[in-house]
Amino acid sequence: xxxxxxxxxxxxxxxxxxxxxxxxxxxxxxxxxxxxxxxxxxxxxxxxxxxxxxxxxxxxxxxxxxxxxxxxxxxxxxxxxxxxxxxxxxxxxxxxxxxxxxxxxxxxxxxxxxxxxxxxxxxxxxxxxxxxxxxxxxxxxxxxxxxxxxxxxxxxxxxxxxxxxxxxxxxxxxxxxxxxxxxxxxx
Length: 187
What we know:
α1 (about 5-20) packs antiparallel against α2 and α4 (about 80-105) packs antiparallel against α5 (about 115-145). The protein has helices at about 5-20, 25-35, 60-70, 80-105, 115-145, 160-170. It is mainly α.
């Protein structure tokens, strides 16, 4: 027998599924628990936090924003927000700083790396190589967000000043509304 509260909860679950906040599997599991009268479990909350109606992470899902460029690994078309760029850059720098700290701590007085330091440097090198393509794709999408060609990312090749110029461009807010490169990712 379904009571009024269970029926309201079922309607809320259906609305969350339709808005894309929870997956169909999460909906089915929660519906099954409601119909059987089982109590809610904290683990039943959706693992992915997404903004309603978009494929983007929720505003407060910082890890989701940092990992979004890795999910869009070599996607050079479309647009990306400033938040996506800066959260990715922050996450990459924190991970790299942690690995460099481990390597520094495992260095002896002669400058020789220990086993843990060598592993940290190896992971760092693999990480740099693995993050290169998503970083370039993210730069291209950020320039697209400002209605500029993705080739502006080549400014990075200018010695000394190129990276600073590109970082300055990354601070600029993108176009509001649709532009030549796609719909507004913030809409």
